[in-house]
Specification:
It is a single chain. The chain is an alpha/beta fold. The chain has a single domain, classed as Flavodoxin domain (Rossmann fold), CATH 3.40.50.360. Helix content is 36%, strand content 15%. α3 links the parallel β3 and β4.
Length: 185
Amino acid sequence: MRVLAISGSLRRDSHNTRLLRAAALALPPGVELELYDGLAALPPYSEDADVDPAPVAVEDLRGRIAAADALLIATPEYNASIPGVLKNAIDWSSRPFPDNALRGKPVAVIGASTGLFGAVWAQAELRKVLHHTGADVLEEELPVGLADHAFAATDELADAELQQQLIELTGALAREVRTPVAVSH
């Protein structure tokens, strides 16, 4: 089983990318994580640019999402919401609607911030946007506050309780792939 991990931060030393690396260590046996690193290459979404074929970076993202069994997205919080580059990636991935790469895809959202609240508003906003695209979004969240001090030298979360929550969340995501929720029409 393969999980595509997307960090909503472009920063070289991103806490959210580091949180995804911690998640890779917390995955159940038989699940591997692929870290997507093409966020900066995506052009700004425009219906005028959404042609067939789509731009190469967009096709790559859509193909990786389609090939993945699930998504794990880590978002920072910018001005009480999700970063524009992450929203842009979701906008591209949600097309063509309704048969987009996100539809029916199990997705978990986590987040880290240097403040106390661990990007909880951004996580809520991102879950809302993903629900609208048709993704199967887990309600579990993992807010990692004070991210400057949240990680151990081993790349795991320094707080044992947070690390356990990460293990439980990645396990729930894997179970969602193995036992998808029936959708009623």
